Amino acid sequence: xxxxxxxxxxxxxxxxxxxxxxxxxxxxxxxxxxxxxxxxxxxxxxxxxxxxxxxxxxxxxxxxxxxxxxxxxxxxxxxxxxxxxxxxxxxxxxxxxxxxxxxxxxxxxxxxxxxxxxxxxxxxxxxxxxxxxxxxxxxxxxxxxxxxxxxxxxxxxxxxxxxxxxxxxxxxxxxxxxxxxxxxxxxxxxxxxxxxxxxxxxxxxxxxxxxxxxxxxxxxxxxxxxxxxxxxxxxxxxxxxxxxxxxxxxxxxxxx
Length: 256
Description:
The chain is about 50% helix and about 20% strand. The chain is an alpha+beta fold. Strands 1-2-3-4-5 form a five-stranded antiparallel β-sheet. α1 crosses α2 and α3 runs antiparallel to α5. The two termini are about 30 Å apart.
């Protein structure tokens, strides 16, 4: 072991760090066996770090499954560890923990409207002005009506399906899909979360247990809002687990 040049300024328990030059000289002096053992030690440390990280993630998964349950259906409002969902901004090693969409009940209003629009042309035969039009104009008018109805319904479905709130092992993400030409992306690190609150208001939200989760952050985006998501109290518990794990990582000096 290399000795410090100034023993008077070094405490007995202080760790003496060898410079790369000293380590290289030791490799030359002790031969290839020493170099091989050093490489093996480094590999074991890396392997142990990866194993520990997998163990931590598995433990988090178990806790989240206990809270939310196993929901992986592509059209579910809550997806836990989804294999059917991804987003282009995700980092290579970033793991998706939970994906939330607005509660299915929020679709009822536009579905009823779409059904009414589909049925409306059948009532036009009772309107004298429309029945007096030539047949080809009636056909063109009905085709145009159905195309507009389809476009309305399809855009509403896409808005619900892609308007998602994502929780990964590193950050919370809000993707607002307003229409085909308007998409908003907001994010904040888990470590930046300062406060989490929820609000359930109204008869429908109380009956079907959905509401809004407000995530206060110290990031550039001061607040991320999960609107009309199911089981807001469960989402809060998931975020609390991830915050606790993030704080533990900081204390232990672990880096994901």
